[in-house]
Amino acid sequence: MMKFEVVRSETVKPSSPTPPYLKYFKLSLLDQLAPLAYEPLVLFYPYNDHDVTFKPAKRSLWMKKSLSDSLTRFYPFAGRIKENISIECNDDGVDYVEARVHGLLSTLLAQPDAEALRQLLPMEIESPKAKTGPLLLVQETLYDCGGLAIGVCMSQKLGDAASLSTFIMSWAATALGFSQALLPDFNASFRFPPIDRSSAHNSAVDHIIKKRVNYGYVTKRFVFDASKIGALRTKAASANVKHPTNSEAVTALIWRCTVAAAARSNSLENLPPKLSVLFQTVDIRKRVVPPLSDGSIGNLVGYFAAQTDETGLELQGLVAQLRKGLKELSHNYAERLKGCHGSRVIIESFKEADDLIKRDDIMNLQVCTGLCDCKLLYEVNYGWGKPIWVSNIPSALSNVASLMGTREDDGIEAWVTLSEEDMAAFEQNRELLAFALVNPSVLEPVALSMKSAL
Prior knowledge:
- By secondary structure, the chain is α+β, with helices and mostly antiparallel strands.
- It folds into 2 domains: 9-195, Chloramphenicol Acetyltransferase (2-Layer Sandwich); 199-453, Chloramphenicol Acetyltransferase, CATH 3.30.559.
- The chain is built from 15 helices and 16 strands.
- It has helices at 29-32, 56-73, 105-110, 114-118, 129-132, 161-175, 188-191, 204-212, 226-236, 246-268, 315-336, 342-357, 420-426, 430-433, 448-453, and strands at 3-12, 24-26, 38-45, 80-82, 86-88, 94-102, 136-143, 148-155, 218-224, 275-283, 301-309, 362-371, 389-391, 400-405, 412-418, 437-438.
- It has a 7-stranded mixed β-sheet with strand order 11-10-12-14-15-9-16, with helices on both faces. It has a 6-stranded mixed β-sheet with strand order 1-6-7-8-3-13.
- Strand 7 and strand 8 (148-155) form a beta hairpin.
- InterPro entries: CAT-like_dom_sf.
């Protein structure tokens, strides 16, 4: 692994003080129930030898200045959570870290490594500081070649992957002088009012984190290009789901191959088959009535559980289970959340999921697909060009697959974390390898002229 060092760390505060009438920002109920963890994202920029404007020192100042200006609009991001009820918008600021890697960005991009990527984040994803510490942290990491990685962590108590994407795109627009291009919508707490108890954070997802953080597990990257996904969708289609989405087809295949790998390990130990439950996260902004705006900030995700026993693993059936779960979730949020009982419905759904997770006869796989449609993130330009790669850094939780769209086409890349035994079987699964490449170079689909700039 290349040598990594932190050069300096400081606090960036809003360029204008937050007015007194905005001092307390209410969390929504979904924010209260969110896990104590950070939402991560890293953007990679190759060295641009044609642009002499942004030398490293000036680039850092440019980033911090535009970040400071952005925080005046995203004022809760610079505050601190109080009793899991609200954010005190006291302008404490966000952490900004400058780091250096002694090596080439092209080396990392040629074969991305999970541990190396985690170094590019200013905070561990599962850190409990997501509750009491800074709600936003940024790390810029400079490579010897001049390439740059911008890692951002946002507390999931503040927002989800879509919220983080909105902030990053707005920050970049501010850097380019378009400060009003993307404005946040902070009205989630009006739609999902908080409950007045500090223990509301004990959610099902939080239980997964406490139970399943294990740094002995293996994380690997698999990439599905658009042509392979097309063939996979055809194979996964059925009378129940005639046109599976890209996400549904890839998720079902990963689910099938993961369960097959675990069943192989179980058979060696003469253990009985287990029920497999897949927890799927879904952006609910457009699924509630009336719908929320794209710029809505908050942990605006729902979860559904699709399940099967180890004898019901046909691809078509798994896709049908995923589609059924999505339809039921959409109905729940469109209908059951209406009126005065919405909070009770949300709490009950989280309790049901929590009870399900705690069962000993279940093998869980949580798949996060919130950034499968991430084309706009590949347009994020702070002044020195667009990113060559955007990655949601893999979690250290066992049995997790994190999906994200690719840069060049409608492909999907997945970071999958399994035990060493399960991963050995998973990565050799012939059906998986018929549709996915194991950790291909990020540079392969990039033009040769861009390669030389690395």
